[in-house]
Amino acid sequence: MKPAKFNYLRPSSLEEAVHYLSEYGEDAKILSGGQSLIPLLNMRLSTPKYLIDIGRAEGLSYIQEEGESLVIGALTKHREIEKSELVKEKCPLLSEAIRWVGHEQIRNRGTVGGSIAHGDPSAELPCVLTALRGEVVIADVNGEEIVSPEDFFLTYMLTSLQPDQLVKEIRFPILKQTSGSAFVEVARRHGDFGLVEVAAVVDLSEDGSFSEVKLAIGGVNSVPTALGDVERLLVGKEPTEESYKDASVLTMEMIEPESDLHGTAEYRRELSGTMVIRALKQATIRAQGGRVM
Amino acid sequence: MDGVKINLKVNGQDISREVDSRLLLSDFIRESLYLTGTHIGCEHGVCGACTIHVNGDPVRSCLMLAVQADGCEVKTVESLIQENGKLNYLQQAFSDNHALQCGFCTPGFLMTVSGFLEENSKPSEDEIKKCISGNLCRCTGYSNIIKAVKQAAQTVSN
Amino acid sequence: MTKYVGQSVKRREDYRLVTGTGQFVGDIRMANMVEAVFVRSTHAHATIKGIDISEAQALEGVHVILTGMDIDGIIKPLVQFESHCALPPNLEEAINPTIHYCYEDVLAKNKVMYVGQPIAVVVADNRYVAEDAADLIKVEYETLTVVVDPFKSLEKDAPLIQEHLQNNVQSDFHVTTGNAVQSLKDADQILKARIQTPRVSSNPLETRGVVSTYENRTDQFHIYSSTQLPFEIRTYIARSLDLVEQQIRVTAPDVGGGFGPKGGVHPEEILIPYLSKLLKRPVKWIEDRLEHMTSARHSRDQIHDVEVAFNQDGTILGIKDHFIIDSGAVNYFGLTCAYNSAYHLRGAYKIPNYDVTCQIVLTNKTPNVPFRGAGRPEVVFVMDRIIDMVARRLKKDPVEVMRKNMIQAEDMPYDQGILVKDGAKLIYDSGDYPAALDQGLKMIDYEGFREQQKELKKQGKLVGVGISTYVEGTGAGPFESAYVTIDGSGQVVAYLGSSPQGQGHETVFSQICADELMLSPNDITIRVGDTTNLAFGAGTYASRSAVNAGSAIQIASAKLRGKVLAVAAAMLEVESSDLQMENGKVFVKTNPEKCVTYKEIAKAARPGNRCRVPGGMEPGLQVTHYFVPPTVTFSSSVHIAMVEVDKETGLVELKGYSVVHDAGKVINPMIVDGQVQGGIAQGIGAALFEEVVYDEKGQLLTGSYMDYLLPTSMEIPTVEKSHQEFLSTRNPLGIKGVGEGGAISPPAAIANAVVDALDPLEITINQLPISPSKLRNWIKEAERKKFKIEIG
Asked: What's the gap in Å between the CA of C740 and the closest CA on chain B?
């Protein structure tokens, strides 16, 4: 299990990186933290002619507040998000979800941009980004472009990224102080990719009913999926067992899971319904009682 | 050979080599530097046997190219022993608590835990379990490793 | 004189292993060394039409490429291992087996029989280049019909896996005592069930690996292998390459876990030495994890169809079992696992009428070999599920049914009425199983748990308890060797034939030797894992090393003590009965000033004019002893699992796990506890996570650690352990084996606990692993059934 040969390029800036991409993009792979790519290289499931290591490109690692968003540079490591007080305060959903990503050794190297660009439907960050209706900032030699998660994640391990493009930055909307959020996941073992994962954010009116709901599910469809219909169903309703049940039933109708080694399609569908309820309950309790995580 | 010059510090020593760009960091450490304490268990980033420190953080050396370590400070299991040849507190705790059987996974555990204890010297049992959950051991069933980490944490906080 | 035996002496192996200075096969470096990579079959069943190596051969850095045709007639095919397959005549008569030999070319020549079978080998400057070359080799296949389901393999028109056979049944046999058929007629009730244990993979953290060097001057090979059986490898290399054994030295250096599949001989262990002679330079091959998943041998994979005769009071009158083992493409180990299963099924229970038939069936999968427990986890799962099903059928507590059928302490030694694989009568030597059960129940406060359980269930928390017991024949022969000597510097050195993979042999054997020679364990050098110093050795498998090698070193050391005393007596001109030994000195009891050191004694024992060895004894201080056990010793255990089930997700959480274990005389409690905990972790893996899955084309679906799930620290609880110490009557120290034990019972205990947690829902768990998806499905089925019954 050793990588096949490739030509190694190490741009020191974003400009240089997109320049390489414009030249070699068709035959190239971007190496960021490498936690998803290097296993594929080792197994020779990926044998790019050029490997563009953007790990040293300057100015791509940052977490900052910009207006309504928490803006995170593509090269920011998972571990930095996990430790960030700013993330904890502005987007606790992301703080909670990030701990489900692999293990510490992986989070020490893995980058946000890499995770998003890899497009794994059961990965945690894409699920959070989808729930929050965040934005992916894409760069190429012509400049930058902002893409919604819906347009970005096309299907299993495939994104809208063109061969000459790379992910430059991710923008997570900042959560309202009054909202409650939850990220729940079922995996065979701790640290595995989720069988099902659900990200939920809820806000409550003064009468206690849902004023706003954001919900996405990962691991069941070919892309992380925002559950818009379920969100609309819930807004205006009281957080009762009945509303949760309705949300669960609708969720099960909206998804198209497939069977694999770790679970049948039927199981995944049912589990999705269960986990949506659990996520909503958890988020609601947090919205009701404060921000305890 | 598609050689790339790299400079790095390994266990406190400055190293300068020309390496094949596809060479994995784990192989560089073992084959070029003869530091065979870093073991290779799966080469797809799951077992944790190859865990080392890069710039102070535990990482899987099979999921890094040697060229990515250019300019970095690397530490391997060989760095743990005390200058007088005695085991350090963590190694001693592993031995005291029978936290290893075949010993193949042990260097990876030691490197994972030593990074962890630097940040959290009073971990709960649950935190210890989480900390080592990215390292597989097929012999011990983990309980003695957890005991060893507790002992080591005790030593650190004293 | 057991100063050290029985003590938790810290391990001598640890220093090198925690400092990164141990030496595993992969760590061996030699000048001029080159690396090998294997091209492996991508098809489960296909004819090889051609192999094009031209492009690969042209690659810079490639030294040689061999295919099956290149070694045709030079290297013999692997055949099943005689030492494990030969049956004693009385057993053969008793079970009337049919056994067909099967073969595997070390590189497939005409056809491939499983995915991962070696087809060609490339040797290059390093692994990177060798893999580049392997990628360039083009194999042309013509696919054949693939059989992965053993029942399909039994069908009349099934394609033949081993073409020289008439069908795919490689072996069969029949074991019986009493009259099971009659008992099924006599019983109040009958229970029928299909109970199966899937294929699993042992997955030591160190994969396999071989390094070989060839020395032209002496025409000798030195082979390093990550093996459990250096002596067996020596024999097989000699046989396969037409050499004599003295040309071959096999060393097992530090070995990173084995658990069974690193026993036996794999094709690579034959080819790498051949290549080292061909190239006249050291050749190294280290298996990667993907190769390990496909090509290192798997285990278990049994399907039992049982009929159980029992009465209203819970007495089990008889069991009739027909079982199939899916052996994959080759069966190397004869009836090892199969007969282990057949003779262990009844475990701690008195079941007078017993009838078992077994078929070992070939399919297009990786060969199936023994793995920790070797046939016992499968049948303990069968037996303890039977107990649980009978109890639930009768609305009794499973403990009541266990007690009803258990062999009592006063029944010991207990004759089960059939034979052990070595031909001896199956007679349990010692133990008290009901006491172990009571001890276990007390550990978890069983009555209290039952009360608490009711409360928790009311609150919607589904907790359950499950019990499993086993009796295991451990310490299998045929023999083990120990050679103990005091060298010229007065150092005691002991060589043993059984070689470790983490069991701490250097520590425990030094404890035994230290007690005999009145030294500290640190004063003794233990050498294991090398064929150089002993004429014969067996190896480490079947929970046998402490029993056999432990007894061998104990007896050899005692004999050496006699000789040391005899020489000292001659030197000091007293009777040896007047002497005492301590700390490397022998002195006169009544006059301790009058003494000689071991070094002086060793000098006086040298051959020559000044030799002080009494007449009739050979000069020198060396003793070899081969311990030949009369038959196996019977360890036993009670395992109790406590779980909580999340009914909605199907997830099972282990809340606690307790064990009572009888390993006879415990040499080192710390190491024994470690073996038990580690074995249980593997058993928990088998219960909840691990399964080797093939698709219908024979493609492996669990080819990486993403898909084959090994338990992590998050899934394994700290096991509460308690011991019994009923000494074995079959060796001088009273040792019973412990290595495998932990792995045997967890699937049964956990399955029973899950069933219990979901009670009164009547679910049946007769398959493993208990994955959340499967458990959800069983729950739903049971609910549907219950609903139907309630509606009428």
From this structure: 11
